[in-house]
Amino acid sequence: MKKRLWLMLSILFLTACSGQFSSNDNEKLMRLAVATPEERSLTQGLYKFAEIVEKETNGSIKIQVYPNGVLGGDREVFEGLQLGFIEGTTISTGPVAQFAERFSVFDLPFLFPNVEVAYEFLDGPMGQDILNDLNDQGVVGLNYWENGFRHLTNNVREVTSVEDLKGLKIRTLENSLHIDIWRQLGANPTPMAFTELFAGLQQGVVDGQENPAGNVTTSNFFEVQNYITKTNHIYNASVFMISAEFWDTLSADEKEIMTKASEEAKEYQRKLNQEEDMLAFELLSAEGMTITELTEEEQQRFFDQVQPIYEKYSVQLGEEFVDELIEEIQLSYESKMATMQ
Question: Which pTM was predicted?
Fold first, then answer.
């Protein structure tokens, strides 16, 4: 209850300070909140969405973007959508799974072999069907943006093998599947909000964390971390969502504009994220971080080590559902490999 009150007061204060209260009764205000910094591709995707919507509605919908977690972490922002205090956001599938369980399937380790296969699946029938699970949460899921492949950083030692993970205190998302993955790999997982992470690393509350390279650079984790290992252990999609309460106030034309804008913003953000990822590793190297690539043998060992995760969550999410999903991903991968030969 205290968090909800804080969230509502924060929004009222920030909205008033930014001059976003409108005297025009025909003008709609849409607040987009996100935990990532302003320069991160996910935040830039929200700015692009805002630009398109304001242009296409001739300014009848005004959009304000709140980056840097100023309206709370992922959980608080999602709850803000449910309560109608926040109108839109993009959040990784891990935190979303706390509210809609089937999203957990996207965080199964080493599920997607590359971004092309991920895009095809997420934009296809099964990916869209899972978005519909949000309807029961008072949220409308429009599509999937990209956080990227997650990698491990730490400040204790270079990680070149599964054994090197033993005993490391690793910050994870506030998500049981992520916690189970790192426990299975021999680390000590510690769930923590992204907005608290830099301080946690700086103060030694945790030894390391796992995130896409873009988050490591834009959040300056390289200042408190010496090592990064390209684990690619999870491809992290980021769900673009709108509050159902706000969605229901829109006309049919406005909904169509929102839907088209979300697709344009998705394509823009994914491309930007790919560029950001490439440049991020160059920056991390220049900042003195030791960058480690796992050998094929070690990649296989990591994969073998987490197989109990598949067994546990297949039972929890439904074996038929998980089997169908894995089969579709495998067929997509084989098809793309065949066209390359």
Answer: 0.87
